[in-house]
Amino acid sequence: MSKWSRKDHKFKYKMFVADMNLLNMDAENRVVLNVGGIRHETYKATLKKIPATRLSRLTEALANYDPILNEYFFDRHPGVFAQVLNYYRTGKLHYPSDVCGPLFEEELEFWGLDANQVEPCCWMTYTQHRDTQETLAVLDRLDLDTEKPSEEEIARKFGFEEAYFNGTLSWWQGMKPKIWSLFDEPYSSNAAKVIGILSVFFICVSIVSFCLKTHPDMKVPVIRRVQVRTADNDTSFVIDKTSTEAHVAFFYIECICNAWFTFEILVRFVASPNKCEFINSSVNMIDYIATASFYIDLVLRTFANHLENADIMEFFSIIRIMRLFKLTRHSSGLKILIQTFRASAKELTLLVFFLVLGIVIFASLVYYAERIQINPHNDFKSIPLGLWWALVTMTTVGYGDMVPKTYIGMFVGALCALAGVLTIALPVPVIVSNFAMYYSHTQARAKLPKKRRRVLPVEQPRGPRIPGQAQGPGGCPGNVPPGGPMSGPMAQNRRMNAIKANHPKEMMSGAQKIGALSVGMTAPFNTNGVKIADGGGGGGGAPTTLPADGDTTTTTITGGGDSGVQDQLKINSQVTLDPVTGQCFTSTIKQPMF
User: Fold this and answer.
1) Is 371 left (phi over 0), alpha (psi -120 to 50) or beta?
2) Rounded CA gap, 268 and 329, in Å?
3) Which of 257, 303, 555, 575 is least buried, going by the fewest C-beta atoms within 10 A?
4) What is 211-273 written as a DSSP string?
5) Long-range contacts of 179-185 (CB under 8 A, 24+ apart)
6) Are 290 and 323 in contact (CB under 8 A)?
7) Tell me: the pLDDT tens digits for 218-257?
8) Coil, strand or helix: which one is 301?
9) Would you give the DSSP letter of residue 450?
């Protein structure tokens, strides 16, 4: 062989070695992530883009690293992880539309990412679950469920849970929840339904009686016998109609109804689990104030009937109409309606603000518009009178008692009507949507199964899976006898089958493996296919005894350099067990041997 041919061959060989080194470096910089059975492959540098996250701290000492398949396994949602990995690649976090919001937040928390980094295009869709959770929390407070609670829940609610577990419940502690459910929970039993129907009956009778007694046909005249003197200087008696009052039957009806209301309030107060909460309840406040107004009116009629202003107290009896709100205990629809107005308080406040603003503006405009031209029949004598006209016009009622008569006033009236329609129409869809949202969730909750299948928490196996090595307590490697499971050629064959066919290390053959590590066929291998000899320099065919928790070993790796000189590395390894997570960590120090 000539001199130039030897140089050319040597140059080609160096170029080939350089290319193979580049391919080998590229393969070593890649990492395989198996998430929920779906394998993802990326560069280690990509995972370092977002520090202080789970993927940025991947090491081969973690328990979920499989040295046989050379991959990290995570039993997590694969669909969410696709967006997580895309976040590492592009720096933009998108929300998958086929995943529930709480699941997405849980996955991001596991991977160590911030949920507030979601892109603006997905933010509206992503935050919908938060509104749903708030709605469900409100429905839980409304207590719309008709399912009967367990005895343990009842004991916890009434504050004698300890006596329940000890079996020392008294007679009153056993009867108190039953009385409370009988008068406050209409759907708890058939007897409670009867009590609820009776309560609704007395409420309706009381309100109908309160309204009918003001009708003229339901009143009777108050006749007084008056003594008068005739022209003959004699005295005689005449019948004089001084006034009218409601029929006495309405008084007896009111007495019977209020007797029931009084009995109901007292029983519910005595049997209530929380007295302060019972007193501060708005519905209960209406109930006992309306009942108290009846007794005050009865006392005034009996002892202060001669006073001229005694009838003024009848005005406060109008609060008895508010007893209609007691029906919310019997109707979930009324509870949802009241909650809709509470949830729409901002929109209602905005509606009232714009109405007041428009009323003041158009009342002032129509007052001065009617004074510009000669108008002898001007109805707008002042701006306060114009306020009434503007209110009636903006609410599209239009009584017609006050109308503008000039052309400029008519123009102002047209603008006032249009502004009123737009002002009222804007917040109404929000209120309707709130009601539809609460109602739909209530219907969905009613159709949900009351009892769900219990999912038992199962502890996942921990510790690295290293061929030829059993796992000690907590997943740490322990000693395994020769010929044990996954030792020798069987472990090597499984490792070789797991390597890709076009792996750079497998592309080298024969003399092309100069510079690569020389290995034996029956010796155990590490993740890079390098032969590991025991610290004592034993035979290559025997399986290596790996250290357990706290042990320190010395390992020698032998390889051939480009010059054919044998190079050796002395590796000191120590295995450490984390008592909290149960993971094993290996600290390694490499030292060249001269």
Assistant:
1) alpha
2) 13
3) 303
4) HHTTSGGGEEEEEEEEEEE-TTS-EEEEEEEEEEEE-HHHHHHHHHHHHHHHHHHHHHHHH-S
5) 179/267, 179/270, 179/271, 180/268, 180/271, 180/272, 180/273, 183/264, 183/267, 183/268, 183/271, 184/268, 184/272, 184/329
6) yes
7) 888 877 777 777 777 777 776 777 777 888 888 899 999 9
8) helix
9) S
